[in-house]
Amino acid sequence: MLPLHVGRLLVGPPGCFNAGRCLARIHPPSARIRRVLAPLISWAEWRRVAALSAVLLLITNAPYVLAYQTGPQVFGGILFALADGLSYLAKMRQGWRGEWLFTLPYTADPGPGVFLFTYYLSLGHVARLLGVSVEAIYHAARVLTGALFLLVAYRFIAYFVEPARARLAVWALFFLGSGLGWAAALAGGFTADLWVAESIPFLTLLSNAHFPPAWALLLLILEWTLLSEAPIGRRLGWTALATALLANLQPMALLPAGALLASGPLWEAVTRRRLDLRSWAPTLTVALAAAPWIGYQLWLTQTHPVLRLWNAQNVTPSPPLPEALIWGGLPLVLAALGAAMLWRCGGPAYRLLLRWGVIGALLLYAPIALQRRLSLGLWMPICLLAALAWRDAIGPRLPGGWRKSALALLAALLPPSNLLVWAGMTGAALVRSPAVFLTRAEAEAIRTLPTGALVLAAPETGAFIPAHSDARVLYGHPFETVNAEVEKQAVTDFFAGRLDTALFLQERKVDVVFYGPREAALGSLPTLPNGWRVLFQKDSVTVFGN
Q: What pLDDT is attached to residue 130?
């Protein structure tokens, strides 16, 4: 069985569920809890974790290595969550051009620039200063922050789990486990554990350059505020810095973190009718450090003429409850058993995990537009509670042979959803899928587009253009194109010949018409008005300028 110990003194002996059908009731004093939870990780253990992290990073990045191999097509730089990934490259290009104020590159009239998306703008500046491509810095950031996430997660798990063999097992569960989306896929379904990258750590490593550091910062904030034994001033100082960084990277992650931090002192105040101001220090630190950044972003999305419209359509709801159960899969089932155990007789560390899981689950269905973004972080308490349930509820009840077979079955059923996504990415790289690859003529034509030009292109082409040129498009992203559905239909109608060509080009102030294989799939190129000339022509791609 999995030899899990949540702290050295916070869990009863293995099999205590059989003896008393309840965990041992252990309530050590607070100072002792702090000493018990402080992880002591040897250098040999860190070296082992670093080696395993390197292997996992090699595996997760193998599809990208295959995609960048020389071939008849040109890799667009993104294999997972294509539209969002290309938008991050487009943001970096703005920094590469020397800009610090962000404008929407997928909108015809982006309005005035604002100090937003500073992380990707900064990466673009780094690319320019180092004289390397935007894509190279993007993937370097993905790998480096992925390594940080792997190590920070292991340290966080070490506060709850010992010995080292058990820590590695839970760490592997955390990074390799997923839901039951693979089973749903057999029936034609496509559930959240196959595409919501911020919620599943393996997908986080596959996806982009800001989810891994957001995960790492969230875990560090919770470590410094809830678990660390370092002096309070130092811990709160680091917490304030990490909070400010997270507010820029993934501000929605601060909502469950803040709720978790506040839940402890709030519960004490209600149950014991005692207000301890010192216990509110972590919550106040996070709130004060986050307030300027989140307040600024809220102000922008309410007052900026274009970002206000963008924010109105930036809706990411959580899936319906049945799909959410598939999303959580077997770890969620095991975690529910662990939660039931803790509800009856858990100690302080247990209650922390339980509060985190309950708060995270409730916030997924809070009445806000960005529900799904709140899933970042929730996989950690699910995995820790699942491991606890196996160690104290399920494993001890099984005979030795059955226990090993059940553990082997669990190990086989946890990673298939991740393997399915990884295999899909690898397949797309091997077959040079046109969804993620450009023809050489398309890539060359995009690179020659005039700076600042407004380009009319098919929706699929429009996704690539701002990521690989300094031009803008009428449509290219379901959120970052204002009035996205209207603009997408207009672009489709243009190439299908259902619009007055001259009037449309004049009203939309189009500078360039891009016509390649993706546009040809929508229809024949309408006759352009007098004055339009060929700017580029190669193979099946022609670019017209006014």
A: 97
Q: DSSP of 460-498, one letter per residue?
A: HHHHHHHHHSS-EES---TTTSTTHHHHHHHHHHHHTT-
State both tokens at 222.
Answer: 């919770």
- Residue 435 corresponds to which tokens in the numbers above? 């969804």
CA–CA–CA angle 81, 87, 89 (5° rounding): 105
**Which residues touch 46 (CB under 8 Å, ≥6 apart)?**
151
Please give the Cα distance from 520 to 458 (Å, whole number). 9
Burial of 30 (0-12, 13-18, 19+ CB in 10 A): exposed
Cβ-contact 211, 377 below 8 angstroms: no
Q: Within a 10 A sphere around the Cβ of 265, how many other Cβ atoms? A: 19
537-to-419, 449, 514, 527, 529 alpha-carbon distances in Å: 41, 12, 10, 17, 18
What are the residue boundaries of the structural domains of the chain, listed by start?
76-132+434-545, 163-422
Q: pLDDT per residue over 298-351, tens digit each?
A: 999 999 999 999 999 999 999 999 999 999 999 999 999 888 877 766 677 788
Structure confidence at residue 345 (pLDDT)? 64
Tens of pLDDT, residues 499-517: 999 999 999 999 999 999 9
**Residues forming a β-bridge with 437:** 75
String of DSSP letters for 497-520: T-S-HHHHHHHTT--EEEESHHHH
454-456 and 437-439 as β-strands: parallel, antiparallel, unpaired? unpaired
DSSP assignment of 48-88 equals HHHHHHHHHHHHHHHHHHHHTS--SEEE-S--SSHHHHHHH
What value does the CA radius of gyration of the chain take, rounded to a whole number of Å?
26
Q: Which residues contact 199 (CB under 8 A, 6 or more apart)?
A: 192, 193, 327, 372, 375, 376, 378, 379
Q: What's the pLDDT score for residue 400?
A: 78
Looking up tokens 């491509």 gives 133
Closest CA to 283 of 305, 309, 314, 258: 258
**pLDDT less than 50: residues of the chain:** 1-38
Question: C-alpha angle with apex 62: 250 to 74, nearest 5 degrees?
Answer: 85
Task: Return the DSSP state at 99.
Answer: -
